[in-house]
Amino acid sequence: MAGLAILAACGGGGGGTPQATEQPATTDTAGTSVTPAADETIAVPEPRSGANLFDFAVDASLSSVAELERVGGGNLLAEWNPRNPATALAPGMKVSFFGSASACAADASNGPTVAGSDDAFAGAQALTGVAMPTGRSALRWTPGGAHAACDAAAQSDSGPSWVYVNPRAGTAGGVGMFTRSGPLASGGRPFFAAYGAGGVDGHGLNAHGLSSFVAFRRPWYAEDAVRPFAASTDGQATSARVLSRQSVGAAQLGTPPSGQTVQVKQQVVVEFINTACQKSGSGATGPCQIQYLFNTAVYRAGVTDWDRFAPPREGWLWFDADQGSVPIVEGQVPSPGQTVLDKTSGLALFASAGHPTQHQPFSDRPFDLRISFDQLGNAMRLVAASKARVAPGQVGEQALRETFGARWNDPTAWTLVHAAVGQEVYNDGAAVRAAWLGGSFRRLHVGSVN
After folding, report:
1. Total domain count for the chain?
2. Does the pLDDT of residue 396 top 80, yes or no?
3. Which of 56-65, 74-83, 134-143, 420-429 has the lowest mean pLDDT?
4. Which of 55, 86, 315, 410 is most deeply buried (CB count within 10 A of its CB)?
């Protein structure tokens, strides 16, 4: 999982007042409605076709699990808290929910998903912006309680977060995602909820967080693995391109008391691995991979001036303990033509050629991220510097070789591990306050720029 970290400027807390009703709109701290973003068009070039790329685009052909498995390149896995490496890390499409299952053991994992009731699904999908007939139950998933680690009373429980696929061409289709934390509209307790203050490990890891992800695991070790930093003809270094088309139909933040936090966000995640480092283990002491987390839409109670609160050109590196300390480069998406810089060292991390991070509901906007091989090298340098506890400018080639292997600077050695779209909710008053995000995506592409 990509982690549940909120933006670096975020804080913590708890408590709040529950919302009596749900409305398909975002609210600010005064409780007033935030209107959808104005119509805006930023043209992005169509991605190239052919070999050495991954491209998931929703159309009418994706009308069955078999078709999703064909496009995903492996078995479709839909679970809550997936922890079995044999299935979670195998190639294919992964629908994952991360949080705390009510009336289940605290360490319960690999939980099932179900199609849920038509009524519950209809209420959730109405908030995502992607409509789908309720009859397509094979293409929708919500956490279910039929698990050996759950009490007898919870075996028939499910919800309230959802993922579903509407196999229609154009803007009408997409992968809908509804991610909800806090009491139900009826006042009842949800089956699948946010982690408490103890988090996933009992010591605060991912505390107060809840997330939903749709990921595509790739066979990074294969001869035909996607090598986005290497041009397909001569193997020379080029830039990786990450393109998505996403929407946010509605979000709810509520009005938390002063000093307490509620934030919801949508994001794109990609991970690259140095295959030579991973396969040989030839003295490499590092993780062999780097993950990028692009925050494409963020909504936080109390924030109206995002340029001041979290400058869009500031990025940062952190290590996700829930993924074995995988290094993650994170940041918002700036305006087209701008580059995100590490906020400590000033090293360039990635650039944007599409829409910037959104803070209102929006429809079918392209986010077009570019990572040059030099920028990947900057990320490697930050990782090596962190491990050696020195400044990035003090990192030499030997430290990079020790962290990422002898072929650390070979663009053909870096392949795509996975690509994902996720939604996360941070709600430190989830016992009494509801917060949710409804959104979708209809395309996710990872390849080379040329």
Report:
1. 1
2. yes
3. 134-143
4. 315
Q: Is residue 32 part of a domain?
A: no
Q: How many Cα atoms occupy the beta-carbon half-sphere of 281 within 13 Å? A: 0
Widest pairwise Cα distance in the chain? 61
Task: Say how far apart CA 14 and CA 427 lie, in whole Å.
Answer: 8
4-30 pLDDT per residue, tens: 344 432 222 222 222 222 222 333 333
**Mean pLDDT across the chain:** 88
Question: Quick one: 403 exposed, middle or buried, by C-beta within 10 A (0-12, 13-18, 19+)?
Answer: buried
Quick check: pTM over 0.85?
A: yes
- Dump the DSSP string for 22-72: --SSEE-TT-PEEPPPPP-----PPPP-SSS-EEEE--TT--SHHHHHHHH
Range of the domain at 338: 50-448
Residue 39's Cβ-count burial label (10 Å; 0-12, 13-18, 19+) is exposed
| CB distance 256 to 301 below 8 Å | yes
Quick check: is 9 in a domain? no
Which pLDDT value is given to residue 4? Answer: 37
d(CA 359, CA 297): 6
pLDDT at 295: 98
- pLDDT in the model for residue 235: 63
* Pick from 230, 408, 205, 238: nearest CA to 318: 205
Is the residue at 1 inside a domain? Answer: no
How many residues make up the chain in this entry?
A: 450
| 60 assigned to some structural domain | yes
The secondary structure element, H or E, covering residue 330 is: strand 326-332
Q: DSSP string covering 396-439, please?
A: -HHHHHHHH-TTTT-GGGEEEEEEEEEEEEEETTTTT--EEEEE
Whether the CB-CB separation of 365 and 357 falls below 8 Å is answered with: no
